[in-house]
Design goal:
By secondary structure, the protein is mostly helical. Helices cover 52% and strands 0% of the residues. It contains 5 helices and no strands. The longest helix has 18 residues. It is globular, with a radius of gyration of 14 Å.
């Protein structure tokens, strides 16, 4: 399931060479999993299986691209993708709100 292509991520990162293709593809894969896990896993898994890079909703694609950008920052430990509370940053979570199922304890 490729919701963001390598070419699109490289454009987003402003990278025009192939030296980092393997790393960027790994970051795309990680970002996709992180974003889909934030939502309701059962609901997202069922609809995401039918999505492609051209049919994925823009809010999900934007969240994945922002997460790729955060993962790609050199020298961040822990990666900038995790906010102080260990979760995706608020800007990414905001893009995924309609896909998130809230639970009350």
């Amino acid at each position: 399931m490729a919701l963001v292509t390598l070419e699109h991520a490289k454009q987003h990162l402003r990278i025009d060479h192939a030296l980092l293709d393997t790393l960027i593809q790994s970051e795309i894969d990680q970002a996709t999993v992180l974003c889909l896990q934030y939502g309701d896993k059962a609901a997202l898994a069922s609809v995401a299986d039918g999505w492609t890079d051209t049919t994925v909703p823009l809010d999900v694609k934007s969240a994945i691209l922002e997460t790729v950008e955060l993962l790609h920052r050199p020298g961040d430990d822990p990666p900038a993708v995790f906010s102080g509370d260990g979760f995706l940053p608020p800007s990414v979570r905001g893009k995924l709100l309609r896909w998130h199922t809230w639970a009350v304890a």
